[in-house]
Amino acid sequence: MALAEDKHAQIIDAAVAEFRERGFSGVSMDRVSARAQVSKRTVYNHFENKEALFRAILDIMASQANRSFEITYDPARPIQPQLIELGWAEGRLLIDPDFMKLARMVVGETMRDPDLAAEMNDKMARIAVFEEFIGDAARAGALAIDDVARAAEQFLGLIKATGFWPVIFSGELLDEAQMTRLIEDSVSVFLNSYLKGKG
């Protein structure tokens, strides 16, 4: 069992490197097996085809992203620093070069395949975490929000508009200082609209 798990991990690591370097269309099971230093039969014993291998990587990518979002609203603390922490749960991913290189490749493939895009969207639970956090803050009276889902999309969108989509097209990541400014500015804009007692 341990040997099989080791082989599985070797194949995944090799496939991630291949997909990052070559994109989906440039990857072959032959290349993955050579890079993983296992036989082609071993690769097929674990993954029936390239698409199955790609989906396994999507699962890993989604798990990596979703693990960073184990954050909940605390009514005993001020809202502003908590929103900054929530923003950084996203921001840490957006300044990670390995994650974003894979994200660029994944976005390209999901644009080609609507079913894959829907599958990936279901696996990436980040917006649900934003909704839960913002909804809890609103119910606690820290925020004045009628449409929690819309507000969560707005907050995440403020960060991704500068920190994600330009990177997808240019490949130029924000550094930590730039992400800090982006998150703080996004929180400021968000609170200017939704902080209880504003306006």
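Next protein, fold it too.
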Amino acid sequence: MKRQHPIPQHSNSPVIRHILNTWTLVGYPSKDKEWTIEQKVRAAKKAGFDGISFRKPLEIKDLVHSLDMVMVTTLDIGDWKTVDEKLWMAKAANCVAVNVQMLDDDTPTEVAVPLAIKVIETGERLGLNVAIEVHRDTCTETPEKAYALAKGFEKIMGRLLPMTFDFSHPAVIKHLAPQHYWDRLAERIDLIQFANQFHFRPFNGHHCQVPATVDGKRLSPEFQAWLPFADKVIETWLKTAKPGSTFYVVPEMGSGGYFLSCFPDVWKDTQITRREIQRCWDRHVKKWKASQAGLER
């Protein structure tokens, strides 16, 4: 069954919601003159983003909602004791999506599965849209561990595990060339179609993040090699999408170690990544509408 998360307004088609992770703007535009969190949120609104992802959502929820934006958060969950507290915090912040980075890279799957069940069931009880992220240094560090977790969850629960897909992590771990992105990273198409949270960081098989542009304007060759993969993910997701379902996407250009000194302006690159993802969406949602119109005849 397709998992849906309806948007507040009625829609006859699936909807994409671009979310800015404020981590992108850590130290921006410089360490000495870093924007305040309010400046970052307002810049995201001006740039056309629909929501904000922030690890302390209660601190900015009023600002975000006053700008008619949605709130998203990422939680680190490493044990059973903090599950309820952290998810209640997300509930209090009115988060429309909750991304969970769970446990450690050396956690056995038999330990991770019960906690994943606890996280998902607690989130559902609170009415939250919760998913476990595919991410390095967690229990989903490799494709094998991520899919073992999903299989373990499905075996016990009899349904698919909601996952947040950040394909940049397994791409680096598996040292993939562009022609192998889809075959290796889309091993479980059913989980991709069931998901509604995606982190679209441009990557290649050597680097978890590549620049979107060479100068803040012209698309980089590495970005152009990645873009068909992102396009294929959107096309595949829409094949089973229902009217009103939401595709939450973070055009994720990270700061810190992800951003190298030779890269162009990270904020400009983030906006261009958002623009190119939107173009992919517009192309495929147009086809989705045409197919629906054909079914109604």
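About the second fold: The domain at 15-296 is CATH 3.20.20.150 (TIM Barrel).
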